[in-house]
User: Fold this.
Amino acid sequence: MLNIVIFGGPGSGKGTQSALIVEKFGLEHLSTGDLLRAEMTAGTELGKVVQSYISQGNLVPDKWIINILSKTIDSLKDKNGVIFDGFPRTIAQAEALEEILGSRKKSIAMLLDLQVTDEVLQQRMLFRSKTSGRSDDNPETIMKRIEVYHEITAPVIEYYKNKGLYQPIPGTGTVEGTFAEISRCISNYK
Ligand code: AP5
Ligand code: MG
Assistant:
């Protein structure tokens, strides 16, 4: 059982690397961004409520995120473990995750922090905006997402450093190079 948090700024490659981790290590992928976009597409009550937060680049309030996460976690097969992508993004979420896992006799093995400069984050998301169809992939919202990342989300790093679970990963190289480094960390842990 291996539960991993994949962390980093918007556009740092969390989704891209998660797909590779799933393929190689057989973990379940849990992305709060994907869950929220599915709610928006389905036009659920939650989807309607979160729409404006997401399109403006703000975080969705913790109570909704923690609620959707705890509901989803038990529906996962999680034989080998889970890769948490885009969660936790606040200290309150990190504490909630510890509690949710703890009550199921589970824990986080490591936080992989994809380190990418703001300039590269911006370039990647602007490039992706041509095809993604995401309401938050536009120049104004991209700037806001980066700002919110530094102000509210980056402090989560300290939380995991204090627990000895922090693992920085250089994220500006190629997808393959970044994945090789992630694979090394996971294999070492195992
Ligand atoms: P979320 O969906 O989590 O988006 P994000 O964090 O902004 O990050 P992205 O999904 O845009 O990027 P990524 O890191 O997955 O990178 P990717 O692999 O796609 O959240 C969206 C919103 O939902 C939030 O703003 C918030 O409103 C809300 N939300 C979600 N979770 C929440 C939570 N826990 N609490 C509160 N609110 C929450 O790669 C990006 C691009 O770069 C792609 O085009 C990719 O092909 C390319 N790329 C990737 N790696 C490389 C590489 N090495 N070299 C070159 N290009 C690369
Ligand atoms: Mg993503």
